[in-house]
Amino acid sequence: MLTKFPHLRQDFAASLVVFLVALPLCVGVAVASGVPAELGLVTGIVGGIVTGLMRGSSLQVSGPAAGLTVLVFEAVNEFGLPALGVIVLAAGLLQLAMGALKLGRWFRAISVSVVEGMLAGIGLVIIAGQLYAAAGLKAPASGLDKIAGLPGAAADALGSAGALASLAIGAGTIAVMVLWKRLPKKAQTVPGALAAVVLATLASLAFSLPVATVEVKGLLDSIQPPGLDAFGELANLSILGTILAFTLIASAESLFSAAAVDRLHDGPRTEYDKELMAQGAGNTVCGALGALPMTAVIVRSSANVQAGAKTKASRVLHGVWLLLFAALLPSTLALIPIPALAGILVHAGWKLIPFREVVGLWRAHRGEALILVVTAVAIVAVNMFEGVLIGLALSVVKTAWEASHIKLEVIDKGAGPIQAYLSGNATFLRLPKILDSLEALPQDRPIEVDLSGLHHLDHACRTALENWAQRHSAPDTEPVRVTSNTG
After folding, report:
1. What is the DSSP letter of 337?
2. Tens digit of pLDDT for each residue in 306-360?
């Protein structure tokens, strides 16, 4: 057996670690998304067994992700839980098509600032929303309302013994997760998130605390494949925008995670198009089961690598352990306090905000730092999809601006014509600067403009230069001469 599977021992041990990391996260993401807890486990199972068996990135682990919590919550609120399966199914089919068309590698061209801004915005919305859940209060719908309502929520919580008990569980969960990393390595073989949930559950039971716990429906009762009525929602244009948002954000998060995981190990590199198809297959199955969408998750993936996994067997086995738990021990979910899961997600949301990267970017590339911040603020203020589009648009404008660098050198020897040399890229973005400089030249002297140093001259600039040359010179002065080898 060991000869046929030489890494079975390492992969078996790693799969148990990943299972213990994934279990509280699957449940927490589902509860925060406004869907039954079991659906988070279903997505984790599919991510392990279906996506795990496919080619792409051998050590990357997929499942429900905190990064999609905000989008799922908005979709369920707007279209209802039955429509979620249709959205996820359609997104999965789109990912399969993009992978087949070899579009996976193009996601690597997305500005890192936009992705980090997206994660920061998601992190802020998750933290704000889960602070309400930690106090046992209902969170407002929009990101801005969540943040604006926090002072009032804090005042309400201080006047309620139940809310204070709930907050204590949430705060204790976060404290355990933060302090767990300072324990000896042997203690850390038990993941901090699992330890925090177990301790919070024991504390709430021991002191009979009046806190809400996870509602359990049972695995088979929670799985609701989308019916024909749900497919009728596809006629709604707004649901098509949501499908596109799921597709782009889940794909970007998965492929950026793959690049990060590749830096953690020396094994085979990610095949991006195949990984996109693996994610698409997983999401198609999740959609057919009415479950949450999946992405590759860096927390589970890094735990898999650090636990010594060598092949994809570890992630497949972690899916098997999740399936066994969901089948044999689902009632234990009903013991878990919801504020403990809120604490886990507040901690996860905090880790999504790239504080160090913002500081580094501000020092070296202020334009990129601005894109990151604007993307994050737009996600909080508007919504996730439009916030990402705003970030992408800013990134394109910035790139175009930098690509249109142009230099104007004027040589005036006092006698003879004034010589103006243009070099670089003349695009409409720099047209005002070019015209301001040329119009400042004297009108009563001959002028020669040399365009041979231009790499690119767009139509708008060419037309504007020709118009300027025709009207610049005074009536008794030689007309402006323009020389060019750009055709």
Report:
1. B
2. 888 889 999 999 999 999 999 888 889 999 999 999 999 999 889 888 888 888 8
Do 460 and 315 fall within a single domain?
no
User: pLDDT per residue over 71-90, tens digit each?
Assistant: 899 899 999 999 999 999 99
Q: The tokens of 255 are what? A: 């492929």
d(C-alpha 29, C-alpha 414), whole Å: 74
pLDDT tens track for 153-207: 999 888 888 999 999 999 999 999 999 989 898 888 888 899 999 999 999 999 9
pLDDT the model gives residue 122: 86
CATH assignment of the domain containing 436: 3.30.750.24
- Provide the pLDDT for residue 318: 96
- Residue 320 has a CB neighbour count (10 Å cut-off) of 15
Which of 410, 429, 428 minimizes the C-alpha distance to 420? 410
Tell me the C-alpha distance between 348 and 122, whole Å: 10
In a domain, 1, yes or no: no
- d(C-alpha 323, C-alpha 317), whole Å: 10
Q: Is residue 74, in this structure, part of any structural domain at all? A: yes
Domain boundary among 397, 426, 460: 397
| Residue 466 lies in domain | 406-483
Helix (H, G, I), strand (E, B) or coil at 311: coil
